[in-house]
Amino acid sequence: QVQLVESGGGLVQPGGSLRLSCAASGFTFSSTYMSWVRQAPGKGLEKVASIYSAGTNTYYADSVKGRFTISRDNAKNKLYLQMNSLKSEDTAVYYCAKHRGSSWYEYDSWGLGTQVTVSS
């Protein structure tokens, strides 16, 4: 059974940093594309960042490029999102998402999410 458990969210001031983690189990993590997606209040899901199974290639939404870094530790079955220079518009629930098969665009599992609130 696939399990994805996010952690590391919280309240941070604008300009601050947070590091999100996702612990994965129940599938071959090292062979799976992974993403972080977020949902801000009253808005739809937004793909924030994605990473190839070996970590060799990454994708970032324009809104976070240069501020966020996605990474993974396949030995520990963990996915990370380092978020720097946070802005109020980054406030959202952040989800770790497992891609479907070899698809770069579809997901088939995600966690319960972790709340990130950027406010002074």
Task: Tell me what you see in this structure.
The protein is an all-beta fold. The chain has no helices and eleven strands. The chain has strands at residues 3-7, 10-12, 18-25, 34-39, 45-51, 58-60, 68-73, 78-83, 92-99, 107-110, 114-118. Strands 2, 4, 5, 6, 9, 10 and 11 form a seven-stranded mixed β-sheet that branches. Strands 1-3-8-7 form a four-stranded antiparallel β-sheet, with no helix packed on it. The chain starts with a strand and ends with a strand. The model has no long low-confidence stretch (mean pLDDT 96).
List keywords for this structure.
single chain, 51% strand, seven-stranded mixed β-sheet, 0% helix, globular, 120 residues, mainly beta, 11 strands
Low-confidence stretches: none
Structural class: mainly beta
Shape: globular
**What's the gyration radius in Å?**
13 Å
Q: Topology as H/E string?
A: EEEEEEEEEEE
Give the rounded overall mean pLDDT: 96
Report how far apart the termini are: 40 Å
Tell me the strand percentage band.
over 45%
> What is the count of β-strands?
11
**Largest sheet composition:** 7 strands, mixed
Proportion of residues in helical segments: under 10%
Number of helices: 0
Give me the secondary-structure topology.
Blueprint: E1 3-7, E2 10-12, E3 18-25, E4 34-39, E5 45-51, E6 58-60, E7 68-73, E8 78-83, E9 92-99, E10 107-110, E11 114-118
Parallel strand pairs: 2-11
Antiparallel strand pairs: 1-3, 3-8, 4-5, 4-9, 5-6, 7-8, 9-10, 9-11
